[in-house]
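Page 42, continued from yesterday. The earlier attempt failed because a stray header line got pasted into the input along with the sequence. Redoing it now with the clean sequence only.
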Amino acid sequence: MATPVYNAERWIYPFLKLTPGLDRQVLVLGENPTAWVQKEYGLSSELDRTERIVRKHFPEVEIIKQRSNVRDANFWNQGHEYLASDCDFIFRFDSDEMMMPYHWNLLLDRVKSNDEKSISIDFGKNGVLFHHPNDLVHGVMHPEDSFIETRGLRSELRYDGFGAFDLSTSFLFSPPRYMIYHYQGWKGGEKSKELRNDWFPTPTLIDGLFREGWEKIRRL
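This time it went through. Structure tokens are written below.
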């Protein structure tokens, strides 16, 4: 799996804990954010402790660096190409996207047992956004009824445009349960909060991993 990262100390620990069973895992660490990333996510322009956390607690995870955090095909393909020589299928999940083990194992089984070209997820139907990154208790459904993005490609393929791939040939992984928990985009969460009033509690497992991660950060 290749994961784009910038200032992810809030969620990188639970994210890596919830993505076991991979042959290789690499973080593409952006050294600078784009202006819209800072505005949308409320992030500082100064790098946080993401790299220190990963190197101390997840030494098996590889880190490559990129000067910018521009979200385009070149950015997504950098991590993909880094793993393409010895991986058959490469996932691309953001570090704030977390699945419970049941759904994660379903996804891994699907890739292992089928010859899929790519896998996409409908975040509108399956995503829960937390309305502020400091609120790890309440979430609301994604504000859009359907928002499909590619989250994995076979090694010989590449992303085109804004992390996209031909969705007409992509397997849509969409179990009938809310499965993706987002902790980063507070503006999206506020929009969800305005449009909906259906709140979801944080799964106990994820909440516990967040607290465990913060304790690890405190001890750095």
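Notes: The chain has one domain: 2-218.
Reminder to self: strip header lines before submitting.
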